[in-house]
Q: What sequence folds into this?
C-alpha cells in the first residue's frame, strides 16, 4: 500500500468527529514512578462503543456508494470491531450483519445487537468467523468491512495517533497493542508523518505472535496454534497492508503473556482506577514487566485501546 499522509488522517477525523469522543490522555504518576519515564495513557476505553474501533468504520462507510449502502454490509469480529461497525452502520442508515465467534463476550454481542446489527455466531476465533462472513457476503451480495486491512479503515484508526501527536507533541515513545495490525498501522503512520523520531512499539500476546513471526519471515505467516484468550490480540494471520506498514513504520514489537496481562488489568483497577480490557492492558503490561524499557525522563504514551472487559477471564486466572 501507499503510506497514508497527515491529510488522510485529517480527512478521516473530519468524517468521524461528529460521532466520536476526543479521548483524554491521562498522566500516570504510579507508572512514571515505577519506570522512571513520563507515562501517559491514551484512554480509548472512554470512546463510544468502548474502544477505538468505531473510528475506522465511520471513515469506510462514509465513502460507500448509495447502492452499496442499500445492499448492506457485513463484518467479522471478536467484539470491538462488531460494535464499531454496528454503530457506524446505524449512523449511516445501513443494514449490518456481524459474524462473531461463539465465545465472544456476551456484553459485546448484546451491545452489537443493541446498535441494530444482525449477529451470527460461528467458530472459535476471529479467523473462523471471517471465513463464515465471506460465505454470507457472497450469498447476499453484501459489502465486506475488514477489521484491520482496509486503508480507509487504517486511516480512521490512525486518528488516535493524530490526537496523540497533537496533544503530546514532544512524545518520545508510543506503545500500541497488535491484533491484526490496523491500529498500530494507522497510529504509526500518523505519528511518523508528524515526527519520524518517535519510536513506535507494538505489543502482542505470546500466544498469538502473528505480526512478529511475519516480520521475521518476511511474509504473512498463518499461526498453527493460537493459545491466547485475549480476544483483541488474537488472529492467526495479520493483514497484507498491516504487515507492509509494520515492516516500515514500527520500531519494535514485544510479547507479553496472558497471565501478566490479566494481572495488569486488576492492577490498573486498583492503582489507576481504570477498567481496561486485555488488549488495552497489554501496553501497560509491557512497561510493568520490563518488556519495554524507556530511558529515564522520556515521555511515553500507552494506547489503552478499549474497556470492553470479559470479567470472567480475570476470575478464572486469579482466583479459581
A:
Amino acid at each position: 500500500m501507499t503510506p497514508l499522509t497527515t491529510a488522510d488522517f485529517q480527512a478521516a477525523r473530519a468524517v468521524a468527529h461528529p460521532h466520536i469522543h476526543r479521548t483524554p490522555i491521562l498522566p500516570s504518576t504510579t507508572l512514571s514512578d515505577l519506570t522512571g519515564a513520563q507515562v501517559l495513557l491514551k484512554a480509548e476505553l472512554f470512546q463510544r462503543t468502548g474502544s477505538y474501533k468505531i473510528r475506522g468504520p465511520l471513515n469506510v462507510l462514509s465513502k460507500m456508494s448509495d447502492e452499496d449502502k442499500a445492499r448492506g454490509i457485513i463484518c467479522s469480529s471478536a467484539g470491538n470491531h462488531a460494535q464499531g461497525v454496528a454503530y457506524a452502520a446505524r449512523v449511516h442508515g445501513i443494514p449490518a450483519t456481524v459474524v462473531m465467534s461463539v465465545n465472544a463476550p456476551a456484553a459485546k454481542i448484546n451491545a452489537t445487537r443493541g446498535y441494530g446489527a444482525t449477529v451470527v455466531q460461528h467458530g472459535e476465533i476471529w479467523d473462523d468467523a471471517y471465513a463464515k462472513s465471506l460465505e454470507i457476503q457472497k450469498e447476499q451480495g453484501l459489502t465486506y468491512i475488514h477489521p484491520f486491512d482496509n486503508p480507509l479503515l487504517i486511516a480512521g484508526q490512525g486518528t488516535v495517533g493524530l490526537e496523540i501527536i497533537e496533544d503530546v507533541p514532544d512524545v518520545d515513545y508510543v506503545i500500541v497493542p497488535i491484533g491484526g495490525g490496523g491500529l498500530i498501522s494507522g497510529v504509526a503512520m500518523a505519528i511518523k508523518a508528524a515526527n519520524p523520531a518517535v519510536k513506535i512499539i507494538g505489543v502482542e500476546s505470546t500466544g498469538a505472535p502473528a505480526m512478529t513471526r511475519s516480520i521475521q519471515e518476511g511474509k504473512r505467516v498463518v499461526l498453527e496454534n493460537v493459545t491466547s484468550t485475549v480476544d483483541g490480540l488474537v488472529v492467526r494471520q495479520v493483514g497484507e497492508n498491516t504487515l507492509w506498514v509494520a515492516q516500515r513504520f514500527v520500531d519494535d514489537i514485544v510479547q507479553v503473556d496472558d497471565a501478566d496481562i490479566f494481572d495488569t488489568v486488576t492492577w490498573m483497577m486498583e492503582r489507576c482506577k481504570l477498567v481496561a480490557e486485555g488488549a488495552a492492558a497489554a501496553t501497560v503490561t509491557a512497561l510493568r514487566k520490563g518488556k519495554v524499557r524507556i530511558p529515564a525522563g522520556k515521555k511515553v504514551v500507552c494506547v489503552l485501546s478499549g474497556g470492553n472487559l470479559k470479567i470472567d477471564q480475570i476470575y478464572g486466572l486469579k482466583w479459581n
Summary: The beta strands are 25-27, 38-43, 73-77, 96-100, 118-121, 143-144, 173-177, 199-205, 252-256, 299-304. The mean pLDDT is 94. Residues 1 and 241 are 6 Å apart (CA to CA). Residues 126-140 form the longest helix (15 residues).
